[in-house]
Amino acid sequence: MKTILLLSGKSETSWLDSAMRLYEDRLERYTSYTRVEIPGLRQTGALTEDQVKEREGDLMLKRVKDSDFLVLLDEKGEELSSVEFARYLEKRALSATKSIVFAVGGAFGFPPRLYQRANYRLSLSRMTLPHQLVRLFFLEQLYRANTIINGEPYHHI
């Protein structure tokens, strides 16, 4: 199963990008992984939050295939423990999912159109997290899930 992390905008700091690459390098051992960054919108000062969400959503939807299983990382999504997330990934792989796309929206979240297209919504926390940090937190959990699936000692139960 291919794993794609679809991001609205690029990482804003070099330390965040370096930390993300650390987990991405570790993931190569377990899964076919790709990070896809949609270019950030420019000159948005005259746009409303909804207009920004719609434009970002349009760009994201262009990168999602009909056959992709789309998971929105969303604060209103279902919360799973690390072990539950690992089991979720196993279930997706066993159901012959070819590509699973995990999407991180911009600062204002996702437009209604993306919610309608989504197959699942996953929350990393009930707390509101900066969309830039969600990227790193998610990658660590994706790596952790893969070590759980493979019975490796990274995750301490």
Number of folding domains? 1
Would you give the CATH topology? Alpha/beta knot
What is the H/E order? EHEHEHEHEH
Radius of gyration: 15 Å
What top-tier CATH class fits best? Alpha Beta
Fold and architecture overview:
The protein is an alpha/beta fold. The chain has one domain (2-41, 48-149): 3-Layer(aba) Sandwich (Alpha/beta knot), CATH 3.40.1280. The chain has 5 helices and 5 strands. Helix 3 (82-94) crosses helix 5 (131-149).
Task: Name the descriptors.
single chain; 157 residues; alpha/beta; Alpha/beta knot; 5 strands
Short description:
With about 160 residues, this protein is of the alpha/beta class. It has a single domain, classed as 3-Layer(aba) Sandwich (Alpha/beta knot), CATH 3.40.1280. The protein contains five helices and five strands.
Topology:
Layout: E1 2-8, H1 14-27, E2 32-38, H2 49-61, E3 69-79, H3 82-94, E4 99-104, H4 112-117, E5 120-123, H5 131-149
Parallel strand pairs: 1-2, 1-4, 3-4, 3-5
Helix pairs in contact: 1-5, 3-5
